[in-house]
Amino acid sequence: MSLYQLERDGDVQELIRVLRESEKERVQLRAAELLGNFPDHDDRRDVVSALVGAAESDSDAVTAAAIDSLSELGGDAIEQLIGSMAGVDLEADAADWVKAKAFMQALDAEIPELRMAAANGLGRLEQADSVPKLTERFEDSDPRVRARAARSAGKIGDSRATNPLESLLTDPKGAVRREAAEALGNIGNRQALQTLLPMYEDDNERVRRIAVNAFGNFENDKPVDYLVEALSDESAAVRRTAVYSLIELLSNVPSERSHDIRETVVEKLSSSDDQSIVVPLVEILEESTQAAQRRNTAWLLGRVAGDDGRSRVLDSLVEALKDDDQMLRQFAATSLAELGGEDNMVERRLLKLVEDDGVDPQVKGQAIFTLGKVGGERSRKALDKLIDDTEHDIVRKKAFSAISKLGGRI
């Protein structure tokens, strides 16, 4: 029976027998690889034990395959191997610092797959004391180890990794630069973020995207120019990420600075003819669950939306008028007033909302307020009639105020 058939049948005991008894390296290697596909098997303990034994094989290829499979199995699988090699009994309830000590020892192993597994394990344990040892692996001869070590340093998030990670931003391997950039973004201190700014020009698309994504963590306007520049990136993924980071940046800056930074963003975006940012902005407004993001997006849409996609922008802003978040409703109303326009599209959308008997009076009031700024004779007539017909004081009060701005009652 083929190894493939054994895997399909879930016959791990026979795969274990083949791994232990076959005299052919290629067969052992394949059996070790396949055993990594059974993380939840009833015989998991036997699988792990067999792979731990295979990892100490005389064949580097079989050892590498066994280590990879132990990593795939997750949980305490790789810990059993590292504990065995370190001469430490790593029981499931062993203290994390005990496990970390064994993993740090394994970082010096001759086999790169084991060094990779050890780096991964330290990332899961998140023991800050392991950061200096992880950063030593940033000079590893195997780029896979450098990448895994950088990733784990980012998961731990200790600021001591900032300088060493910076050195990886010029690594010849794109995968290493990506992991270093993401790790710096996760650490997120001032130095880490400052270090990432030049990375928006990296020749690797994913590095640029990761760096641009991290720019949203700033609490000042320093990355605004970079983010606006990234809106013209040849990669759609980078452009989209830049939009999200701009909104995130506006949400993160101190409230006393947010207005100035919003104005800076608008100034930069208004000087560009690129309207590709509108679609992701609308998506943020419609799909985000973060109040600050949605408010900033609603405000921004009224200042940067052009003729392209105007109808969808209006639909989204009008829908935002119905939201439970009062501040979002106010931002949406101001943006609709900004969009106004001679085509009367805003007026028609708002009148439809105002004339709908099923709409909440608070929502109608917000729409009426906006009509007082963008409406014309049609709005004046509709609001004049509404004053006499409505049963809601807030609607009547808002209608009186709007009509006064439109020339008074008929």
TrEMBL record:
<dbReference type="InterPro" id="IPR016024">
    <property type="entry name" value="ARM-type_fold"/>
</dbReference>
<dbReference type="Pfam" id="PF13646">
    <property type="entry name" value="HEAT_2"/>
</dbReference>
<dbReference type="GO" id="GO:0016491">
    <property type="term" value="F:oxidoreductase activity"/>
</dbReference>
<dbReference type="InterPro" id="IPR011989">
    <property type="entry name" value="ARM-like"/>
</dbReference>
<dbReference type="InterPro" id="IPR004155">
    <property type="entry name" value="PBS_lyase_HEAT"/>
</dbReference>
<protein>
    <submittedName>
        <fullName>HEAT repeat domain-containing protein</fullName>
    </submittedName>
</protein>
